Every structure is written in structure tokens, then in C-alpha cells.
Amino acid sequence: MTSETLVPFEDVLAAYDPALGLEVHVELNTATKMFCGCPAVFGGEPNTQVCPTCLGLPGAMPVVNGKAVESAIRIGLALNCDIAEWCRFARKNYFYPDMPKNFQTSQYDEPIAFNGYMDVTLPDEGGDGETFRVEIERAHMEEDTGKSTHVGGSTGRIHGADYSLVDYNRAGIPLIEIVTRPILGAGEKAPAVARAYVSQLRDLIVALGVSEARMDQGNLRADVNLSLSPKGSGTLGTRTETKNVNSFRSVERAVRFEMQRHAAILDAGQAIFQETRHWHEDTGITTAGRPKSDADDYRYFPEPDLVPVAPSREWVEELRGTLPENPVLRRARLQESWGYTDLEMRDVVAAGVMGEIEQTVAAGASPQAARKWWLSELSRRANDAGVEITDLGVTPAQVAAVQALVDAGTVNDKLARQVFDGLLAGEGTPEEIVEKRGLAVVSDEGALSAAVDKAIAENPDVADKIRDGKVAAAGALIGAVMKEMRGQADAGRVRELVLEKLT
Amino acid sequence: MTAVVRWTRATAAGMAEALERGETTSVELTRAALRMTEMVDGAVHAYLHVDAEGALAQAAASDARRAAGAPLHALDGVPIAVKDVLTTTGLPTTCGSKILEGWIPPYDATVVARLKAAGLPILGKTNMDEFAMGSSTEHSAYGPTRNPWDLERIPGGSGGGSAAAVASFQAPLALGTDTGGSIRQPGAVTGTVGVKPTYGGVSRYGLVAMANSLDQVGPVTRTVLDAALLHELIGGHDPRDSTSIDQPLPGLVAAARQGAAGDLTGLRVGVIRELQGEGYQAGVLARFQESLELLTKAGAEVVEVSCPSFVHALATYYLVMPCEASSNLAKFDAMRYGLRVLPEGVDSPSAEEVMRATRDAGFGDEVKRRIILGTYALSSGYYDAYYGTAQRVRTLISRDFEAAFGQVDVLVSPTAPTTAFKLGEKLDDPLAMYLNDLATIPANLAGVPGISLPSGLADEDGLPAGFQVLAPAMADDRLYRVGAALEAALEERWGGPLLDKAPALEGGSK
Ligand SMILES: [Zn+2]
């Protein structure tokens, strides 16, 4: 049996219960690294943001970044976790060239935050808005590794490569790893739960302001654990861990794919091999990574070069006061102020653009206009490009600026779409794009009037209908005028002119 | 007396005074030290690397400062040797291992930076057991150091190079590191003074760690006062070392000067019952008893105290230390610096194969032994039984110290159970080698400070024995007060420093 053999999704659910587990790594946006004073910046010339500590040079020692601890506590509080009164870092020992010390300074059995939950809202066609509680086992602090680039070979993976390059700029950048408890009982909604959890976790991280949280940049990386057990058995099956799934949509697809793949193997009476899996964005499948057993022995022990982290209760409460609004309350508040129906609001939440709409409205657009652009035009474009809408590259301020041009009658909705083309192509501000592309609506009454006269002359039967009082027929003439004007006319004004001339 | 002899036999405090009075220059002191090295170090092998040029340049700069009336510190211009486990910009740092051969660190250890900031010329880097693992300096990948008292004998370890450099007058001062006794035991067997400060009292930043929770940097000198001067210079809080204590040091030099006056009235001294008797050489115990009598004579009250958990100290140490060491030494993998060995008969070796070949060729047997011990003890399923249990025993040992310091001001014992043994004698018997540190290890496990100073020569072999004083954490001043008082009483009895009784070395003169 190959891994490509799949069972139809409905058949999976008839025979099996899925158990999900999600591990999300969040790269913090602190100014400096976790244990040294190097700038924690993404990119840059390789191996320039390094020092003896993050290069693991003999004799160098770590010092904990207090800002990273603060961010970890705020994330923990926002996830309804308990915050440890006393916890330590631990060494996770294994050899790999992108890890300068050959151990990762992480946390093991004493995480900074533990025992929390997040209520996620599922998109639900036509039904009630459903929330699903995802329990959080822990959130802990650790350092990132360096980044290996494998050169030669076809896959870009280490196997088959001619040589490898390592950039330690990323080594030591603070990470928070957020681990869920096994998510049971999601059934057919398992893929959607996984997606909604990662998406809403990202919203939370953005609201906290602790990370850039861009999945396409690797600031937020999700590992998806999945297992199946015979329906109703109440047991946990053997799991696979699909690493570095880097979009919400892929999280959903990866869960679905693994469910179907597991079921095919189990249906054939075979056993799931416990391993990591690689996700392939282009083909939407996973392939085998390395074996992973529960007995993987990292020889954890407390990091002796660091003193315990013991956040005072006063500090924790002070940080609790800095948390963004409770997501459920925030949603209700925004829905009321925007005047959206329940259905409209649910679509907005499901699309993960609540924050974007809030910012767009704040920048001056009406709630309905903001919703229109984010849910239709920009969602479609993100889908076509295969990226998250928040990674599309259009900002709320730009959306508001485009809508302002519409409101001023400078462009109509159709021309506005071309302004978005220009924005995505990096052609400048919306105003500049209108100028450069010559997109402004023609407001020259003479030209418009001539075009209307031409349309009437070319469509005498339609004109007669309107003269007979069938005003609804005006649409055909308006369409002809808009075509003549290559869309650069205000359709409302055209309608007025048609009616003026014929009634 | 030649200038070389005159200036190499002076104490660091004496040199500092002579510089102050304009009787000599830093260049003259540094030249004398380097000349002594030329004469005797072929036989002793205290140094792995001598930096004559660098030391003389620093000495000249010191003299210029002094001429301008602006010395940086009381020890400005007094030369010093540094154990090769401390990083030094521009000077090799090998830790006595082949795996770091040729590595030149791009940064200074904090203690080295403090020496430089105070103007002490750095003579060179001293020999040591590989990664500080050993009690004889025979585990150096670059050949053993020999004991200046008898070149057929070991100078102790792991800091045999620093102790031998000071004992053979190649340097008035040296830095050592002490994880289980690596400053104090070499001090005992070479007739010199060595101090392990309170854990956290001296920065470990730039000390290539063997066991991070046990390691401390400390002074290696010929007198108690010199040790206090050096300790005050290198000690104090360092923000780069999270385990460094953010409290001012007690006055160490003042305590040494006070102690040298010889009055210990009211001081309570506890003799540790578990650190004497079986396994201790008769001559070592005899000198220990004499020292106790001198303390009593100086006004101290000497009582016996029991620290029952100390009998488990050695076993505890040999779990904690290898666990930490096995992880610390993982970084030596040929990927970024140091030795790189390509496996034989492999056309296009993988990173893993290069790591394996390099670590096989680059580490000596004792290092491999401890890596294997530590890796095993930390393995899943064994962690609680070994590392976990060891940590609990560590707590018991700390409690024994606390209880004892509730009764007495300082605790005392012989530093090492025997005088220096012959080179090769214990090389094939690791357990016998480990027993040398029986009396020094408890202080490391509990983080308390300790000093070793010479107590005299054992009758049966005429070799130096050491007297150890231990104090509560951050009460390092007590070591200096008691040490200086005992040193003064002993030197009065001997008619001068013990090292005056050492035989002349080939090439060296008395
Ligand atoms: Zn750094």
C-alpha cells in the first residue's frame, strides 16, 4: 500500500474517530535574541547577527531575555493558562549542525504556562455558529535553531545534497511553542477545527503584538499531529506529525489528507508508522519524514547556566491588565458597531479578517464597504494566489483609501479592482495608480451624453421600451454606455442621463 | 642574588609595593618571569603557550601608565598566568584537548578582561587535564606537567599547570578553575595556595565549562594575601553570567591582613569527622594535627563536627559532573571551529560521519569515559535514578554544611588524602584517581568557598601536604582570615615560606 492510497473522507468518518494535536511555534518580535544581545531580525547577510553566545562558542553563557518572558506570560494568559510561579529552562540534547551547542535551550517539564484553552469559532454553512474548545497543554519558551540550506540534489532536503550551508542569524531567536492536548470529538470538523484554531491563534498573537506572526515568513509554524482510532473505541491510535505546515488552508488540507491516508492503511489491516511527515503545498500531500518514537531520547536536564524564572504574582497580574479584549466580547462589540447580521459576521470571522476590517473602518471606510472588499475581492485574490489573505500584501489603510476614491466618485467598483491590481504590482498609492493607469471615471458630461445618444441610436427597440415606461430595460443601455466608456464612467450618472433623455 | 631570582621569588604583594616605590618596573618583573620559564619549563611543562611578546607589551604599557602617575590597580604591572580553560582574545585556548588545537577565541573571559583592565601582563596559558578532567594533569593531550618538588611526580590536577607555574616561580599569580578540587588539590601537592570562591562569586563567562553547576574560577598563588588581592580583582557580579551573585564581596584583603596578625580569639573551627582517618596518609594527618594546634594557640576553639552525607559526595559528584559535561562537550563537532577529522575510506562523508571521526580522534580516554557516563545517566529511564538522586543528595550535603555552620565559623580538613603520587601511578585506575578529590568535592556540590594552604612536608616522603578551610557561601573573608593566621604561624615555625625547602630545579637557581 502506498501513502497515496486514500479513503473518501465520508468513509473515514464512518469507521474512525480522529484525534488532533497541534504544536505551533511563534517567533517573538523582541529586539534581541532569547539568550544574548544580538538583534532578533529575520534575514540579513548570513552569519552577521551572531555573537559567542548564539554561536555556542566554548565558554559563552546565556542570559534570559526578560521581554521574551513577558511575551510568553502574556500569550499564556491570553490562552487562559496558569503561569508557573517557578520554572526552569532545560537542555534538549541532540546533534545537528544548525544547532551550535548541539543542545537546544528549551523548557521541558516546567513550562512557563500550562493548562489553558481557546474557544474557536467554526465557519458553518447555514447552521449555528459553533464554538469548539481546544485545550492547551502548555506554552513554553525556547530558542530557534540556525537555518540550513541544502545545496545540490533535487529536493532541497539534506538527503542527496552536495553540501549544506548554515546561517546562524536565526539561532537563538525567541520562540514560544504552544501545544494542545489531544483534540477529540471533532469528527468531520477536525480539518476545520485545526484551521480555525491556527487562524484564531494567529489573530490572538497579532492582537498581543508579540510577533509578526506571518506564516509565509515562518514567524508562525504549525506541526499537525493526527491519529485515527476505531469509531467509538475511545482509544488513541498511532500518530503522525506533519511538520511546518505554513498556511491556514494547508493546515486544513493536511489534516484531511492524513485522515484519508491513515484510514486507507488501517482499512488494509496495516499499522500506522509513527513518523514525521513533510507537507507538499503544490500537490497537497504528505510524504514520509523521519521515524519518531516516543522513546526519542533528548536527555533533558535543567540548564545549569540559567537561574530559574520566577515571575512575581504582581507582575503576572500587571501583564494580565495589558491583554487585548476577550475575543468573544470583542466580536460581539464589533458586530454591533458594524451592524452586521450574524451570518455576515460569521463569514468575516471564518475568513480571518475581523482585525483587517476593524482597521479598515478605523481608516475611514464604511463597515459594509470594508466587508465587501475583504470578503469578495481580496479573498478571491488570496485564494487564486494560494496565500493567506493577511499575507496578500494589501493593507487595511490601502483598502480604505481605495474605498475613499469610490466614495468620491473618482473610480467605480470595477475600476477599483484595477487599483488593487496596481497595489499588488507595487505601483504606488491608490491615487498614484489611478493617475498612472488613467482609471478615473469620465465625468465629462459632453462625452457621456454623446455616448448615451449613441447607445440609444444603436438600440432603438430598447429605447422604445423605456419610453413605454419599462424603466428596468435601462440596464441594457447603461451596459452599452459603460462598454463604450471602457468602464470609466459613473453608472449612476449614466442611468440618470438615459432616463432624462427617454422619459 | 640575580635579578631573575630576586624578582621571581617575590610575592605579588611584594612586587606591587616595589612597583609603587619605583624599585622595579613591570617590564623587569615580566622579563624575570619569562626568563625563569625559559630556564625551568622544559622540565616542568607548566605552560601550553607562552606569550612573551604580548606580556612584555602589556608590561611596557603598565610602566608608561605608572610613569604618568595613573596605575589602574594595586596589581597593575604584576604578571600572571592563566589556565588554558579560560578564553583569551588572540591567544590559543585548547583546554588541554586536541579537539581545540589551534582555536583562538574572539573574546575574553570576564576574568581575563578584568585582569587586562587592571593592567596585569598575561604571561601565557597553563597546562591542565583535558577539559579539566583529572587530578594529575596527566590527561592533558599535550603531555603532563611535573611537580617542581619532584619531577617524577604529578602536580595535581586539573590545574597542575597553574600550580606548578607558581610553585616553580615562573609566575607570582595564576588563575585556576575548581570543579571538584582542581585549584585546591594542586595547591596542596605543590605547596602553594589555592582558593575556590563561593559559587557565583566570580564570573564563569568565558570559562569553558566542564560542569556548570560546580565550576568556579579562583586564585592560585604562593601566599594567602596574594590570593586575596587576586580574588578581589576577579570577583564580583557579572551580568553575562546569570549565576553570578549580585552582592558586594566581603573585604578579602582586609581579612587576610587582619588574620596575619595572628589573633583568632573567639573563632570556632570545626574538624569534619568524615574527612580524615582511613585513606589519609599518616604524614598528611600529622601536619593537619599540627595546624590545628597552631589554630588553638592563636585563640581558636577547635571542635569536631559530623557531616554524615559527605560520604556520598564522591558518588554524587561523579553523576552530576559527567551529566553536565556530556552535554557541554557536544558542541565540539568539527562544524564551526577546532579540529576536523575526515573519516578514512569514506568518499563524501556526511556531517554526522565527520562529527564521529573528529570526536573519536579529538577526545582523550578520560573525556570519553565521562561523556559516556553522563550520556548514560541522563538517558530516559535512568534520569531519576541517577541525576535526580544525585541532586537530592546534593541538597543533603548542603544541609550538612548549614547545620555545621550553625555550630562553627569555618570547617577544616586535609585538602587531599595524600601527597603527590608518581606520574603514571594511577593513570589506569580511574577510581583511585577520583579519590584524590574526596575532601574537596563537598564544597563544590554545596557552592561554598574553600582555601588550601601548605601545612608542611609529610615525614614519609618530604612532600607538601595541604590544609583546607571551608566557609559559608559569601563568607569568603573567613578563609582569608584563618588562612593568613595559620600561614603566619607555620612560616614562623618553618623560618620562611615552605617553598624555600623545595629542591632547586635544573637550570633554575636558588
Ligand atoms: Zn548572539
From TrEMBL, chain A:
One protein family per Pfam: GatB_N
Keyword tags: ATP-binding, Ligase, Nucleotide-binding, Protein biosynthesis
Organism field: freshwater metagenome
Annotated Asn/Gln amidotransferase domain residues: 355-502
Annotated SUPFAM superfamilies: GatB/YqeY motif (SSF89095), Glutamine synthetase/guanido kinase (SSF55931)
InterPro entries: Asn/Gln-tRNA_amidoTrfase_suB/E, Asn/Gln-tRNA_Trfase_suB/E_cat, Asn/Gln_amidotransferase, Asn/Gln_tRNA_amidoTrase-B-like, GatB, GatB_Yqey_C_2, Gln-tRNA_amidoTrfase_suB_CS, Gln_synth/guanido_kin_cat_dom
GO annotation, biological process: glutaminyl-tRNAGln biosynthesis via transamidation; translation
Molecular-function annotations in GO: ATP binding; glutaminyl-tRNA synthase (glutamine-hydrolyzing) activity
Membership in a protein family: Belongs to the GatB/GatE family. GatB subfamily.
PROSITE patterns: GATB
Catalyses which reaction(s): L-glutamyl-tRNA(Gln) + L-glutamine + ATP + H2O = L-glutaminyl-tRNA(Gln) + L-glutamate + ADP + phosphate + H(+)
Protein name (database record): Unannotated protein
HAMAP family, sorted: GatB
From TrEMBL, chain B:
Keywords: ATP-binding, Ligase, Nucleotide-binding, Protein biosynthesis
GO cellular component, one term: glutamyl-tRNA(Gln) amidotransferase complex
EC numbers on record: 6.3.5.7
UniProt catalytic activity: L-glutamyl-tRNA(Gln) + L-glutamine + ATP + H2O = L-glutaminyl-tRNA(Gln) + L-glutamate + ADP + phosphate + H(+)
UniProt xrefs under PROSITE patterns: AMIDASES
Biological-process GO terms, alphabetical: translation
Enzyme class: ligase
GO molecular function, one term: glutaminyl-tRNA synthase (glutamine-hydrolyzing) activity
One Pfam family from the record: Amidase
Coiled-coil ranges per UniProt: none
Domain annotation Amidase: ranges: 28-479
Keyword Ligase included in the entry's annotation: yes
InterPro entries found in the cross-reference section: Amidase (IPR000120), Amidase_CS (IPR020556), Amidase_dom (IPR023631), AS_sf (IPR036928), GatA (IPR004412)
Family membership: Belongs to the amidase family. GatA subfamily.
Designated name of the protein: glutaminyl-tRNA synthase (glutamine-hydrolyzing)
Organism encoding this protein: freshwater metagenome
Organism lineage: unclassified sequences, metagenomes, ecological metagenomes
